[in-house]
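Deviation from plan, reported transparently: zinc ion complex.
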Amino acid sequence: MSSMLVLMFHGLEGAHSRATGYAADPHYTFPASRFGSLLDRLMSEGFSIGSARDLLSEKRTSPAVCLSFDDGDRSNFEEAFSLLQARGLTADFFINPGRVGSAGFMDWTQAKQMAEAGQSIQSHGQTHTYFTHLSPAALAEELRVSKAQIEQRLGTQVTLLAPPGGRAPKGLVPLARGLGYQAVLGSEPGVVTALSVSTPLPRVAVTAQHTEHQVLDWARGGNAALRGLRLRYQLLAGAKRLLGDQGYERLRASVLGAPA
Ligand SMILES: [Zn+2]
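Because the crystal trials were delayed, the predicted structure below was used instead.
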């Protein structure tokens, strides 16, 4: 397979989400207008663009850029959906059935509308509990129940899993594949070059601070352009191992001045 950059977004802030009183997380929210112009630039440069669901199963010769959204934020429906549909593009939306319909999140009617339009709705676990905090039995249950609920509610197949917070315990990929998922997308920065059956596929988080220009650089330059981000990720992963999840979240909150 030719190389594939998988982008990870969370919320998008724009006129529609602001009109309904959207409270944006300042770190993770990306401006909707910048998302639209980024799509236009990527399309004009000839990248194959779309959901990992669609692009992983296609035979391609050109490099691809996949679009994914974590958490099922309601701005995914209010902002991202129309920007994608207007361009004939799909994205993967990783949702937690246990949070669908609660304040700040999409509801099932919205998710269904997106699925019927061809968007890819996938599993981010059932409750957004970090998988590293679950017993093996509880982890298997999160994977099984979230997949079953999305499939039953939307009538579409769930083939992808993104672990909350990118926390992937050892053995997650074989477990997920055994339960009917085709691939697991993590959050270690990098470019996908093969469909791994043992480790999560890399993804690159796009946050408020990132410009269109930077994302284009990653798409053109691949792992070489992502070297800085990869190094930073490895340092943070080392801190997580040393401090544990809770100690790490406290450190992160004090450094970023924002809740994790
Ligand atoms: Zn999440």
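The chain has two domains: 4-225, 226-260. We consider this an acceptable substitute for the interim report.
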